Amino acid sequence: MEALIEYGLLLLGYMLILVGLAMTIVGFVRKHRRWRLVGLGLVFFGVLLLVRQANTAFWRIDGCLDSSGRWDAALQRCEYSASDLSSSRLQ
In this structure, which of 11, 41, 46, 66 has its CB flanked by the most CB atoms within 10 Å? Predict the structure, then answer.
């Protein structure tokens, strides 16, 4: 469930940026100041959301597990066994 929420927030960040850029462009073309401001606000919040997503522990843990490591929750770091390291060098 946590993965679904994290991926949903990532998608929401991208969507906010796209919609914000579209509103900003339409605001400049039609000379609507409010559309430009709302569009820039959406882009700003979309970028903030993506920065927040990039710095969550979920992605660090996911990257560790994807690289065949073991996440140590107490030390907040990724650990690899000696056999994992030697087999990855052979590939």
Answer: 46
